[in-house]
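Please review this one:
***
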Amino acid sequence: MTVLFGIPIPSVDPIFLSIVVFHILVGLPTVIVGAVAMLSRKGSLRHSRFGSLYFWLLSILFISATVLAAMRWEHDYHLFILGVLSFSAAVFGRTAARRRWPQWPRLHLSGMGGSYILMLTAFLVDNGQFLPVWRDLPHLTLWFVPSVLGLPFLMNALIRHPLVIDYGRQTSSYRPSN
């Protein structure tokens, strides 16, 4: 057992530990950059840049998580599944915006918001038991807290965000000629 940043890591293997440190060093900025992208005005250069950075950091985070899960598959396969879902949601959201699929603002918000919620779920499921406040909650609760907290914000954005509303108005007024 090794303790990193106050969190026990069930390994003394230097390769595993170095990948864990790398994973942490990528994970923290991913959370911050994702929050900045979400809180930036949609359509702005800041939103696009931070959103792209979030996507690429999440890609690296997913790769390191995959390696870590493979090294301890029996204990960490569920984290790999959360990683696949998070990364897939981000790919979906990014692709919807870049290719301007029908209803792309809703699809982009859903994909990227879902990606962030799933990423935080993986973090809490894996580390919540070692964190103040979170460690006092039943373990099953850690699976649902990010969704319970994040989904109302996502739903509000899907209903009220001006980009979604404006796009909906544009497409509903479109009438193809026969």
